Amino acid sequence: MHYEGNMIRPPSEANSILLQVTVGCSHNKCTFCGAYKGERFKIKPMDIIMEDIKFASQYCQQQKRLFLCDGDAMIISQKKLPGLLKEIKSQVPWVNRVGTYANAKSLKRKTLDELKEMKKLGLGIIYMGLESGDDETLANVQKKGTANDMIEQGRKVKEAGIKLSITVLLGLAGPERSFIHARETGKVLSAIDPEYVGALSLMLTPNTPLYEDWRAGDFELIDAKGMLVELGTMIAHTNLSRGLFFANHASNYLPIKARLPKEKEETIRLIEQAIDGKVPLKPEMFRAL
What span, in angstroms and rounded, lies between the C-alpha atoms of 90 and 113? Predict the structure, then answer.
């Protein structure tokens, strides 16, 4: 495989074939993210991608899923992306699901019919970083798109029959807008109704603008209790028809896996017990990105 730069994939794609079709992120301006700093975004040459698909056909016969790396594979034009999916289907026919990251910008470039076409060609799940449902917080961290953009594009993915996994980021708004961030994020998640939600807790990364703001005293990182209060508020305002809400990432203080709405009240009670000190939290030394 021809890999370049930092390779990022969702935890659930740990055992997938990782096919790198782009390098970096086409936006790459979010103040909290240092994943692709210093990397210039590019779409990899198709001949290199085809070589890697051929490699997978020979050496990845035990893996049933494939993930298109890196941060923004959906930005590839509709003239090329379906052909790439057809090649995967042809050469790696045992793969039963292709996944990729996407954002509001790249999804806007795809029509509903185009998404349906890619669904038929094997695209089974899209991972979208919402981060926050609060427009002021999104603007502050230079996240591309508004809450309404996220709702529109998320619903389009769902209408196309593609599963949707949405990531949100606890602590992103700081203490002053913590409640608003949690409430509005819950409202956006409810409006989209994804199959999966993954909540991560903000960990500041050196050499990012938000880290520099924190060092300068212009941003306050909420503590473990604040993260839990925010998580409980977010879940309280999230109404899914039958979605899984995860907060079991390595960055989180309290592992959560809840089926909503069935386990909603039980999960909120668990979070309240943790806030009261009745449930142990993950030690700071074991948290990681």
Answer: 22
